[in-house]
Amino acid sequence: MNLLLDLLVVLLALFLLSTYLSWRAGRLDRLHARVDLARAGLDAALVRRAAVSLELAASRVLDPATSLVLATAAHQARTADPEQREFAESDLSRALRAVLEQPGFRGAVEREGDALLEELETAAQKVAFARRFYNDAVATTRIARRRPLARVLPLAGHAPLPEFFEIDDVPPEVL
């Protein structure tokens, strides 16, 4: 009888341990899915900002030299390989600030450029929010993966450790 009780206690302990491990692995999986979704949102925001920047460069709002600088930065941001993307996106942010924060720029913009500038400001703000959301998701996932149980057992499977996305994303002051 005592042996049966000991066996039941061991089985219950194994069941509870396996349930907890399954829950932790599921949580890590959900965190990685959240990182993937946040990255997709960040990519969409970055592509939108580059597209609006190209549209501004193609419009007749800017002078030709400024248009060329902005178009080059936007094109490089859209076509950069993953290793260079952070640098290219930071360059686009700096180019946007250099172009749009010029003294007297706002007064020189014609009426048709106002809607485009508002769209650009919205796109730039969305990039800042999307990057912050993505980096928060990465931080949460990295904390969960640093826990002792997740380090000892392969609870995250073969998922790579997510990396932060650090860019200069201070939006230009256009309005």
TrEMBL record:
**By what name is this protein known?**
Membrane protein
Species whose genome carries this gene:
Actinocorallia aurantiaca
Fetch the Gene3D superfamilies from UniProt. LemA-like domain (1.20.1440.20)
What InterPro entries does its record include?
A: LemA-like_dom_sf (IPR023353)
